[in-house]
Amino acid sequence: MSEIIEKYQCQFAAFLGAERAFAFWKGRVALYAILKAAGIGPGDEIILPGYTCVMNVNPIKYLGAKPVYVDIEPVTFNIDVNIVRDKITPRTKVIIAQHTYGYLCDMDAVMKIAAENGIIVIEDCCLALGSKYKGRMAGTFGKAAYFSSQWNKPYTTGLGGMVITSDSELAAKIQSLCESEVCLPSSGEAFMLRAQLLIYRLLIYPRTTAFAQNLFRYLTKRGAVVGSSSTDEFQPIMADDFFKSVSGVQARSGLRQLNKIGENIRHHIKLVQFYDQLFKEKGWSDRQYNSSTCEPVLVRYPVRIDGKSEALEKAAVAGIELGSWFESVLHPIETPLDVYDYEPGSCPQAERAAREVVNLPLHPRVNERTARRTVEFITGFNQIKS
Ligand SMILES: Cc1ncc(COP(=O)(O)O)c(C=O)c1O
């Protein structure tokens, strides 16, 4: 392995206080590595929220396991721990604790349920880098955790995923998979990613985001750029080159980002406080999460509104950066939900959130002026309470 990748992994592990880190091409690949190393296979059941990225479900299906969806509680959009127990069967092997938007799951409850039932906890920290629960970093509670550094995430390396674990047995198994099964990104993929990162740095600002995203999705579908998800990832059939390691481009970019991660996190926290204040001035009700246990570093600022589709259309025309995920209980979905074992109506809170939630940007390019403009725009719609 190249020195730069090793350095990136070590620095990432050190930032989180974990023993080991393993970098991959994407976050979903990191989840696949954990599940495979944990011996997950046909017939095993994996509990996860019914409000997630569909790319999270693919690795489960690739291994022949079954996703079992739990509805979310409406304030933090995380699994409702009161209903997790009802979903446990003798075949349940894993609970994926996804810390949605940066809000922490109720980790005391999750860990207790898992311990009582001999189940592994894997934390999905793709949206929660730097968030803390009772003063402890997200990602350090379960057997392992995974992170994403794709375009929309707390920091970006274009595409990217990372596993952290302090379980030496699991780490040895992941190491062995890395040595025997992962493929390398092609030089074309690495070159394209480098070019896209450059374009991103030069051209993508809040006013241009909606246009850029649409163009990017179009080019991805035509295979002209290295997209977040290729066409074959919209169905649960694993491509030959799915299990892919990280490239040097990503590791170099990741190291640069890690060097300024403290600054980035402070920016997110400060901007969230600013949004809170602006919404208060507009008479919108407060965020209701449990601030005595959870110190979230939000990746985006979620709000519930009446008229989500209209808001997204108008925002694109007005040059307001408004995020739409999750648009479906499994986002972005292009395949019928039953292919992913989701039964419509089974997670009513998640379905409601998919209809109502839009998210506001918090990345380093957003300043107070942009935040003010975004709040002016979004408060033209009615807030829906949790
Ligand atoms: C909650 C969550 N987990 C996992 C992933 C997968 O990450 P990646 O796109 O890096 O594979 C995503 C992707 O957006 C996500 O939102």
Give me a quick take on this structure.
This protein is 41% helix and 15% strand. The protein has helices spanning 3-16, 27-37, 54-62, 81-87, 107-117, 168-180, 187-203, 209-221, 248-259, 261-281, 308-318, 348-356, 368-378; strands at 20-24, 45-49, 52-53, 66-70, 92-98, 120-124, 132-133, 136-137, 144-148, 161-165, 294-295, 300-304, 330-331, 357-361. Helix 1 (3-16) packs parallel to helix 9 (248-259).
Can you tell me about this structure?
By secondary structure, the chain is of the alpha/beta class. 41% of the residues lie in helices and 15% in strands. The chain has 13 helices and 14 strands. The strands form four sheets. A seven-stranded mixed beta sheet has the order 1-10-9-6-5-2-4, with helices on both faces. Strands 8-7-11 form a three-stranded antiparallel beta sheet, with no helix packed on it. Strand 7 and strand 8 form a beta hairpin. Helix 1 runs parallel beside helix 9, helix 2 runs parallel beside helix 3 and helix 10 packs parallel to helix 13. The protein starts with a helix and ends in an 8-residue tail after the last helix. The model has no long low-confidence stretch (mean pLDDT 93). Pyridoxal-5'-phosphate binds next to helix 2, strand 3 and helix 3.
